[in-house]
């Protein structure tokens, strides 16, 4: 009978071992001090905050670095205004268009289709219907109207300002206009070479209105310089060690 | 060798029971997998909608036009960005409709009272002009629009499906329970029979074969010193192995699969609908964290998608386990959180946070940067996060231990193409190591300070 008891004990402990693995809970932690930090974790829930929500909007009036105001308001007038007057400030370089294509594939192609004909996966699977082709005559999109819609959204399309930065929106803009040309069967637009593009930005930088982008440019240069310094230092260390 | 005592059979049955228990727990999982595979196959069905030609137009041609031009803002039986269109021919003159569809803005500018009224009613949302449509095209669209709403035939089917699914889940448990009960009964019966037979034997004076006392096996074992030594060495090694295994998994959350406040299915979004990971987790491209998408990203699509397609639709993602009603309820939770009112197609302003449960979490002493891996190295998300596009419920696929990081850094080549930053250092290092391609480790990705500082 003792043997029976032992085996029963084994049975119970085995079923406990099988049953106690709970995938809803985290594993034990050894010295969890650095797992559960004193500082607030991103997206954390703490009573200090309203709704106990750590993720908050920036204080009203906050302007991110390098941000430029967008001068068209979210209305029919603003749309028509942007459509007529706004144009793409980025040079039409191959890099910009390729970058735009990569981003287009992530954010736009799912509805608008790889060719811009409005036949993306969601459209083909009849999840979202009525997506127009870029060469739709009634809409007659322009660089300005495309940017305006990306910025504010239009009707069922939401705003993409939170997901893509200003530069990225203009890169996508170049690619969208390229797709429109392809759909219409128009001739390809010639790429601007990198040198020409740089020259153009230099000329533009003398304008007072473009001061912001100039500053950005300088910052970029500075960043590149420090990077170079770091690498040379690193290499020196390497050689010393060897 | 002597005959083994029959009375030990009880313990053997118990051992058998143990084996059965384990093997069934395996079987159960296998069965579930097979069932879900079947469900996916059976989800295919035909589009039952019949094209009924209505007043003077071809509804089939109209459907195509409607889906490509109108459906972004109009639904047939439900208000969307624009009004529901079913019954529009009763409300308006056909000529008025022709003019309105071709250029609504001109009519509003002219001051047509009906046009201005509808413009004001829908918050001054301008309808795109469609000059390319002929009157015949518009007739076709109207014919499609005026088709009466089909009665939901699948309705009777769906609850049945739901019942069956939960039924099959329960029946597995029941079968297991019954089996366990039957085995238990058998054991009890055996014990009882053994007892009664013994009693009969003593009562009727039958001599039971009495086994002579042997030296107990444990005594024999203890006396054999060699055996004791070998066993203790073996036990120590085995103990060490299991203790090490146990200690090494402390703090590792591989397989962690918490229940989220909204049942978000990566299988439907990233798998069936092929939405790029970076569409929602857009900051993975440019920042340290991959980011949990804010709800406006959900609403990019769910403004128009307020319910999932039912099982009769070939594009349906509904399974037996998760019904259409279940998924529709989850979309409603999203609307509650964002304060979206589908009836008026506007935000009420009453929002509440969705308290997602974080799954992947590195301790503060380890530095990890998403953009470095996603944008610079071009590592696919699935390398670390596993087959997310097949996960109905998200779980942690990788152990996220240091050994796991190091291993990948040792095996993965650095992506040099088109990256000027690496050009010089690549030239020098490849000369130093005498190799064509450099692994991340050779670039210094194993240095402590790269991740711990």
TrEMBL record, chain A:
<keyword id="KW-0349">Heme</keyword>
<feature type="compositionally biased region" description="Basic and acidic residues">
    <location>
        <begin position="214"/>
        <end position="226"/>
    </location>
</feature>
<feature type="compositionally biased region" description="Acidic residues">
    <location>
        <begin position="227"/>
        <end position="242"/>
    </location>
</feature>
<dbReference type="Pfam" id="PF13442">
    <property type="entry name" value="Cytochrome_CBB3"/>
</dbReference>
<keyword id="KW-0408">Iron</keyword>
<feature type="domain" description="Cytochrome c">
    <location>
        <begin position="95"/>
        <end position="180"/>
    </location>
</feature>
<keyword id="KW-0479">Metal-binding</keyword>
<feature type="signal peptide">
    <location>
        <begin position="1"/>
        <end position="17"/>
    </location>
</feature>
<feature type="region of interest" description="Disordered">
    <location>
        <begin position="194"/>
        <end position="242"/>
    </location>
</feature>
<dbReference type="InterPro" id="IPR009056">
    <property type="entry name" value="Cyt_c-like_dom"/>
</dbReference>
<keyword id="KW-0732">Signal</keyword>
<dbReference type="InterPro" id="IPR036909">
    <property type="entry name" value="Cyt_c-like_dom_sf"/>
</dbReference>
<protein>
    <submittedName>
        <fullName>Cytochrome c</fullName>
    </submittedName>
</protein>
Automatic annotation (TrEMBL), chain B:
<dbReference type="InterPro" id="IPR036909">
    <property type="entry name" value="Cyt_c-like_dom_sf"/>
</dbReference>
<dbReference type="InterPro" id="IPR036280">
    <property type="entry name" value="Multihaem_cyt_sf"/>
</dbReference>
<protein>
    <submittedName>
        <fullName>Cytochrome c</fullName>
    </submittedName>
</protein>
<feature type="domain" description="Cytochrome c">
    <location>
        <begin position="57"/>
        <end position="149"/>
    </location>
</feature>
<keyword id="KW-0812">Transmembrane</keyword>
<keyword id="KW-0349">Heme</keyword>
<feature type="transmembrane region" description="Helical">
    <location>
        <begin position="174"/>
        <end position="193"/>
    </location>
</feature>
<keyword id="KW-1133">Transmembrane helix</keyword>
<dbReference type="InterPro" id="IPR009056">
    <property type="entry name" value="Cyt_c-like_dom"/>
</dbReference>
<keyword id="KW-0479">Metal-binding</keyword>
<feature type="signal peptide">
    <location>
        <begin position="1"/>
        <end position="30"/>
    </location>
</feature>
<keyword id="KW-0408">Iron</keyword>
<feature type="transmembrane region" description="Helical">
    <location>
        <begin position="226"/>
        <end position="247"/>
    </location>
</feature>
<dbReference type="Pfam" id="PF00034">
    <property type="entry name" value="Cytochrom_C"/>
</dbReference>
<keyword id="KW-0732">Signal</keyword>
<keyword id="KW-0472">Membrane</keyword>
């Amino acid at each position: 009978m003792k043997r029976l008891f032992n085996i029963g004990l084994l049975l119970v402990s085995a079923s406990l071992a099988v049953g106690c693995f709970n995938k809803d809970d985290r594993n034990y932690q050894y010295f969890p001090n650095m797992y559960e930090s004193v500082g607030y974790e991103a997206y954390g829930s703490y009573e200090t905050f309203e709704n106990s929500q750590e993720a908050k909007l920036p204080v009203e009036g906050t302007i991110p670095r390098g941000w430029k105001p967008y001068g068209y308001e979210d209305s029919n007038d603003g749309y028509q205004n942007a459509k007529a007057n706004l144009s793409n400030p980025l040079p039409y370089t191959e890099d910009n268009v390729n970058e735009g294509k990569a981003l287009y594939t992530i954010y736009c192609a799912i509805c608008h289709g790889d060719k811009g004909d409005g036949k993306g996966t969601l459209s083909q699977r009849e999840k979202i219907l009525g997506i127009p082709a870029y060469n739709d005559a009634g809409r007659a999109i322009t660089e300005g109207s495309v940017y305006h819609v990306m910025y504010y959204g239009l009707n069922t399309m939401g705003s993409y300002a939170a997901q893509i930065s200003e530069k990225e929106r203009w890169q996508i803009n170049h690619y969208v206009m390229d797709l429109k040309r392809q759909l219409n069967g128009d001739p390809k637009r010639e790429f601007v070479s990198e040198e020409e593009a740089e020259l153009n930005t230099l000329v533009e930088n003398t304008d007072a209105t473009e001061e912001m982008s100039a500053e950005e440019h300088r910052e970029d240069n500075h960043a590149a310089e420090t990077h170079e310094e770091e690498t040379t230092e690193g290499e020196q260390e390497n050689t010393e060690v060897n | 060798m002597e005959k083994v005592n029959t009375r030990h059979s009880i313990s053997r049955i118990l051992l058998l029971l143990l084996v059965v228990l384990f093997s069934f727990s395996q079987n159960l999982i296998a069965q579930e997998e097979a069932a879900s595979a079947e469900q996916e196959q059976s989800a295919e069905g035909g589009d039952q909608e019949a094209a009924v030609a209505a007043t003077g137009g071809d509804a089939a041609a109209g459907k195509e036009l409607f889906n490509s031009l109108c459906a972004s803002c109009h639904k047939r039986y439900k208000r969307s960005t624009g009004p529901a269109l079913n019954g529009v021919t009763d409300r308006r003159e056909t000529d008025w409709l022709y003019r309105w569809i071709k250029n609504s803005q001109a009519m509003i500018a002219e001051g047509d009272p009906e046009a201005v009224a509808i413009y004001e009613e829908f918050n001054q949302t301008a309808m795109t002009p469609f000059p390319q449509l002929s009157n015949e095209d518009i007739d076709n669209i109207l014919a499609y629009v005026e088709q009466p709403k089909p009665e939901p035939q699948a309705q009777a089917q769906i609850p049945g499906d739901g019942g069956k699914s939960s039924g099959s889940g329960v029946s597995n448990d029941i079968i297991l329970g019954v089996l366990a009960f039957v085995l238990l009964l058998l054991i009890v019966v055996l014990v009882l029979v053994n007892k009664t037979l013994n009693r009969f034997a003593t009562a009727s004076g039958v001599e039971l074969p009495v086994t002579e006392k042997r030296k107990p096996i444990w005594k024999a074992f203890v006396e054999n010193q060699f055996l004791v030594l070998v066993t203790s060495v073996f036990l120590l090694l085995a103990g060490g192995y299991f203790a090490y295994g146990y200690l090494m998994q402390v703090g590792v959350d591989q397989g962690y699969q918490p229940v989220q406040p909204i049942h978000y299915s990566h299988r439907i979004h990233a798998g069936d609908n092929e939405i790029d990971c970076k569409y929602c987790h857009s900051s993975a491209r440019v920042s340290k964290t991959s980011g949990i998408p804010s709800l406006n990203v959900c609403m990019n699509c769910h403004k128009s998608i307020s319910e999932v397609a039912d099982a009769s639709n070939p594009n349906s993602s509904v399974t037996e386990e998760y019904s259409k009603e279940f998924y529709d309820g989850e979309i409603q939770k999203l609307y509650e959180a964002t304060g979206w009112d589908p009836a008026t197609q506007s935000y009420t302003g009453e929002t509440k946070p969705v308290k997602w449960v974080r799954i992947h979490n590195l301790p503060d002493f380890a530095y990890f940067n998403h953009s470095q891996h996603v944008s610079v190295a071009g590592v696919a998300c699935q390398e670390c996060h596993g087959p997310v596009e097949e996960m109905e419920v998200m779980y942690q696929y990788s152990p996220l231990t240091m050994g796991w990081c190091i291993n990948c850094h040792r095996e993965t080549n650095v992506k040099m193409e088109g990256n000027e930053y690496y050009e010089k250092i690549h030239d020098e290092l490849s000369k130093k190591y005498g190799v064509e391609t450099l692994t991340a480790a050779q670039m210094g990705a194993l240095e402590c300070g790269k991740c711990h500082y």
